[in-house]
């Protein structure tokens, strides 16, 4: 039987990342052949990163890319014309296109995308204004350019189905809450599912016995309290705006603040489209806040090094992040009754931000976390690295999370059920 190609597509808030996998049987993990990323969609020029075998392209500037759909077209073209990737010479070689869909509402498992599902997901676009519309544009592009591929949606909120009622319920009128489905959903679930398995395997513990406080810190940032391998709380809410601040997101603010910020809070934003309706309030808090508003850059690597050089705005942004993360580490420590296997850092900032890890772990020192500072400076590229100090009560780990590989793994396992019936 010929190898089958799975394309795992991750439309983040500012980038499109695609990994190419082959798989043979549902039981063996898919094998990664190439990873391609077009970043900088919100701060042009877009740039290309490509890794396949010993071929590596980094920071190549691209022209004529103005959104996720054109980024996908570029990516498909790049992959099919790479002679070193003979497994994917033609769009028809793709059997499954997996899409990370941030807000899936009540969908709780990978779902083949047909016209009805697409319509339901479009209705949820307003609840993930930086994400869903971009992902669905790519679904349509795959439909047009790769008509033989089966499109499957993987939902970023699915991992948080296990949130206890008290954690998922807002203290508002429950009739309205139920009618309008207003509750905490939580996101970054593909990443937390990956982290849970990778850390359990690293610690040689069954997933069902794993208790961790996991931090996914990227352009969007969140924390998750994982007990017995299941999410029991997380910082994002009805939408990915709640909780920690991010590249362009405010994170938690007093909900009344926005009416003092602008009198036009409830009016439609100029970023509204026919597929997505958002207010000025949502536009300001999602797209014009966070690190960008505080420092002018969305790159936390730059913020971190400028803070180290004495830049006050960057120092404040850095300190705000440490302050908010520590709040949740404390809260989740109590939820886990102090029975914590490890504090886990992941996502671009969690994996690369040594200074941030140091500051967070120092604050949590009173709970029994400590860092091996030398390893923390250069943890290396292994899947999970122990950066905790010997002899301390709880571990500290860095995990190279991979949302695309999580989708590919689930896709291969469920392939028979997901395949289109001819
Ligand atoms: N050395 C570094 N220190 C801290 N943050 C970094 C470093 N290098 C990159 N980053 C940050 O990682 C973030 C991107 O993380 P990633 O998880 O890839 O984001 P996305 O949410 O777009 O998937 C950016 O804010 C980037 O600045
Ligand atoms: C849910 C979310 O915020 O995703 P990202 O960090 O990829 O923007
Ligand atoms: Mg991401």
TrEMBL record:
Catalytic class of the enzyme: transferase
Pfam family, one: Acetate_kinase
Cofactor: Mg(2+)
Coiled-coil stretches: none
Protein's pathway: Metabolic intermediate biosynthesis; acetyl-CoA biosynthesis; acetyl-CoA from acetate: step 1/2
Catalytic activity: acetate + ATP = acetyl phosphate + ADP
GO molecular function: acetate kinase activity; ATP binding; magnesium ion binding
Domain of life per record: Eukaryota
Keywords: ATP-binding, Kinase, Magnesium, Metal-binding, Nucleotide-binding, Transferase
A Gene Ontology biological process term: acetate metabolic process
List of catalytic residues: 156 (proton donor/acceptor)
EC code: 2.7.2.1
Binding site for Mg(2+): 10, 403
Site (Transition state stabilizer): 188, 249
List of residues binding ATP: 17, 216-220
UniProt: substrate binding residues: 100
Entry-linked HAMAP family: Acetate_kinase
Similarity remark: Belongs to the acetokinase family.
Protein name: Probable acetate kinase
Organism per entry: Baudoinia panamericana (strain UAMH 10762) (Angels' share fungus)
Lineage: Eukaryota, Fungi, Dikarya, Ascomycota, Pezizomycotina
């Amino acid at each position: 039987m010929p190898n089958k190609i799975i394309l795992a597509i991750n439309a983040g808030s500012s980038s499109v990342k695609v990994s190419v996998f082959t798989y043979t049987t549902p039981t063996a993990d898919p094998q990664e052949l190439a990873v391609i990323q077009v970043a900088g969609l919100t701060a042009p020029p877009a740039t290309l990163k490509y890794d396949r075998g010993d071929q590596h392209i980094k920071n190549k500037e691209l022209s004529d890319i103005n959104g996720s759909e054109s980024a996908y077209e570029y990516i498909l073209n790049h992959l099919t014309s790479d002679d070193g990737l003979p497994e994917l010479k033609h769009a028809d070689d793709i059997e499954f296109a997996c899409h990370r869909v941030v807000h899936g509402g009540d969908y709780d498992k990978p779902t083949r995308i047909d016209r009805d599902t697409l319509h339901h997901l479009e209705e949820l676009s307003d609840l993930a204004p930086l994400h869903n519309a971009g992902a669905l544009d790519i679904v349509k592009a795959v439909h047009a350019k790769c008509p033989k591929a089966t499109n499957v949606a993987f939902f970023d909120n699915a991992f948080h189905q296990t949130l206890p009622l008290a954690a998922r319920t807002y203290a508002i009128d429950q009739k309205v809450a139920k009618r309008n489905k207003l509750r905490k959903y939580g996101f970054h679930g593909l990443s937390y599912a990956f982290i849970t398995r990778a850390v359990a395997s690293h610690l040689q513990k069954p997933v069902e016995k794993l208790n961790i406080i996991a931090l996914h810190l990227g352009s969007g940032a969140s924390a998750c309290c994982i007990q017995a391998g299941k999410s029991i709380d997380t910082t994002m809410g009805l939408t990915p705006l709640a909780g920690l601040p991010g590249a362009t997101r405010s994170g938690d603010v007093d909900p009344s603040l926005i009416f003092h910020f602008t009198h036009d809070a409830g009016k439609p934003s100029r970023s509204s489209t026919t597929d997505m309706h958002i207010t000025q309030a949502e536009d300001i808090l999602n797209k014009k806040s966070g690190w960008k508003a505080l420092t002018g850059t969305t790159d936390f690597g730059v913020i971190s090094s400028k803070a180290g050089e004495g830049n006050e705005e960057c120092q404040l942004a850095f300190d705000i992040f440490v302050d908010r993360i520590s709040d949740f580490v404390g809260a989740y420590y109590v939820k886990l009754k102090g029975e914590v296997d490890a504090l886990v850092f992941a996502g671009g900032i969690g994996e690369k931000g040594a200074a941030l890890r140091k500051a967070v772990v120092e604050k949590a020192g009173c709970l029994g976390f400590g860092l091996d500072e030398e390893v923390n400076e250069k943890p290396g590229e292994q899947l999970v690295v122990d950066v905790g100090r010997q002899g301390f009560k709880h571990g500290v780990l860095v995990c190279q999370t991979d949302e695309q590989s999580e989708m590919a793994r689930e896709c291969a396992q469920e392939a028979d059920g997901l395949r289109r019936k001819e």
